[in-house]
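@channel sequence for tomorrow's demo:
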Amino acid sequence: MSVSPSTSSLWAGAAPLVLASKSASRRALLEACGLAAETAPVAVDERALENRYLAEGGSIEGLSSALARAKALAASALRPDAYCLGADQTLTVGTRLLHKPRDRAEAAESLAALAGRTHRLTSAFCVARGGAALAVDRDTAELTMRPLDAGAILRYLDAAGPAVLASVGVYQLEGLGVHLFEEVRGDHFTILGLPLVKLLAWFRAEGLLAL
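structure tokens (generated this afternoon):
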């Protein structure tokens, strides 16, 4: 577990805020809005949980919430005193659920599936404390990718480099990925993987923020 080096924080909770993830982007989002958080990555078998959730009749739209809840509760089991934040993001194109590519070949396949189509990013969070989920919420954005032929896909992969493997959509919209799109509809933070406005609203309603 590591602690944010930031000494100024708007977090006003009597117990610490713990991010149940090793995601640098989510931690950066929290730090950018003045929230210093400890990090406690948890071991959650996401694919096994996903398969079980869908086999039991869970909706694709609710999958990110289920994953975020599992992460928050796993962290809360280790840190019952803290406010443990779990988060997750899913991507769907039509009825197909995409995952992070394991290599460049899978990255190219994902881009080919997204090219010229609109996909949905659903980002969710869960806050848990004392082994109980206190809040679960999610938000969805829709992004339309421009048509891409095989040459354009390879040129993008060359330019973006290994970073493409870190994202389910094979892009970071805040970086070179913006070149792939014709239209973006939805909250910027949701696209980055955390519905931050909704999360801050819940923190504020619970008296956990100094602003």
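heads up for whoever presents: The longest strand covers residues 132-145.
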